[in-house]
Amino acid sequence: MSSFDRRSFLRGGLLVAAGAAVSACSGTAVSTAGVPAFVGPSAEQVRAAEAARHPGAVRDVVLTAQRALVDLGGKVVDTWSYDGRVPGAQIRVKAGEVVRARMVNRLPADTSVHWHGLALRNDADGVPGVTQPPIGAGAEFTYEFTAPTPGTYWFHPHSGPQLDRGLYAPLIVEDPHEPLSTPPSASRSAAIG
Question: pLDDT (tens digit, 9 = 90+) per residue, 61-112?
């Protein structure tokens, strides 16, 4: 009769978990009954889902992370910026549009762009070492994702104190069905005046 104790059970469980972790990190899809267990960000399923989320409109933008002299209310400072501005220029899109943002890194350090608050593809999330490799000094990276939900968001790096140095900017996702009419109180004031 074999003895199976708690310690043997825990060792077996750790071996199974370690094997699963190694196979998940290997980049090799493991399938069960012909169904892939892992779907990569460039897989056909992801492309099809993204195509269904947007009508085909693409907004191309270029962001350049660079050193710049910036006037902060009368005091000029040498800091880091998007395109020489702090905060950087806003990106404005309609819900459902694809944002294709080419990030050019002219900083003396690695960087990234995290699109704060948006539900988007994991490979566009901009967390270096987790969802993407860092964008090296002098390198470029293109983010591409659908902006699904109307709202006011922002973007910034997830690389050290770069946000504190001035690398941030707004991302406005407009509701294409919003009438953008004048509020009733404003129209009354115009009629009275």
Answer: 999 999 999 998 999 999 999 999 999 999 999 998 999 999 999 999 999 9
User: What are the tens digits of pLDDT across the range 122-138?
Assistant: 777 778 788 889 999 99
Residue 10 lies in a domain: no
Do residues 100 and 19 make contact, with C-beta atoms less than 8 angstroms apart? no
147 within a domain of the structure (yes/no): yes
- How many domains is the chain built from? 1
75 domain-assigned? yes
Tracing tokens 């370690």 back to the chain, one arrives at: 18
Assess if residue 138 is contained within a domain: yes
- 156 is in which domain, residue-wise? 55-174
* CATH of residue 80: 2.60.40.420
pTM of the predicted model as reported, rounded to 2 decimal places: 0.66
- C-alpha to C-alpha distance for 147 and 96, rounded to whole angstroms: 5
